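quick one, 355 residues, struct below
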Amino acid sequence: MTERAEYPSRRRLPDAPFLAAATGRTPSRRPVWFMRQAGRSLPEYREIRADVGMLESCFDPELVCEITLQPVRRHGVDAAILFSDIVVPLKAAGIDLDIVAGRGPVVAEPVRTIADVAELPRLVPDQVGAVSRAVQLLTAELGDTPLIGFAGAPFTLASYLVEGGPSRNHERTKALMHSDAKTWHALLGTLADTTITFLQTQLHAGVDAVQLFDSWAGALSLAEYREFVLPHSERVFAEVENAGVPRIHFGVGTGELLGAMGEAGADVVGVDWRIPLDVAQRRVGPGKGLQGNLDPAVLFAGEGAVEREARRIAAEADVAVAAGATGHIFNLGHGVLPDTDPTVLTDLVALVHSL
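---
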């Protein structure tokens, strides 16, 4: 990865274990961070968000900064991840949606025709200026801790827009995909543009890595993924390659898609808890780092179970690295669950650092 002059605000963090593992170098310790670490399980997060809506909080730079910093202070993780939501760029662009407590993102007018796609507003960087400001505040506060920016992948964003909200079976999404490929690819092309703009805005502001969440890609067959999703995710990764930062790709239930997801262009492939990391390495192939993959539910099982599973994962990761993976970043196989005891996470960080 070669950094270019158009990203002048990048910090230099040569000794950061997270960045070392993500770029094929030997880290000083096994790095660890947790998806959804910024918020949810932390009492200080619940306190500061008590009277502030989710989307409102995502557009408040000072609040984003504080929430992003909370798990770094408490747990000593090796990377911060920007507090945001994958629908933030859609909301910023002018799409009528809201995050409903207990349900998730709900879209007022679903997108299901080529005319609907043509009417979708396009994101411009100024619309997420608050996110840029939050990144700038964070890079000034984080010291030697890297900051991960992120965005939702085109397929996952499309699933929300087509379904009108979260869906168990993604039936309208798959119906559009198979019945009207022209509209489908036009939609994903538009959403890829939005994702690229959102990631590039974060990169210009100074994030040290990016993660692309394709949260619902596991609902697809490998053939569907390759035909209807992969080209658009490839374009996203290609458009941010010249930033010279690690690019991570993650989805839930994507064990059968790991090889194709690796082909999309990420430097590190996130793995959920269903697939051992050494098996994941064989599917992804050599030359990529791996991230994961403790089942977040295990954090409720007691200290002995957490330690046993963490040691197992570290051992499988070491096998994966010996077989050709370029590094391992310890993480959960999905996000921190809201009722997780924060002390368990703090103790897990210390354990991982000792492995």
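The chain has 16 helices and nine strands.
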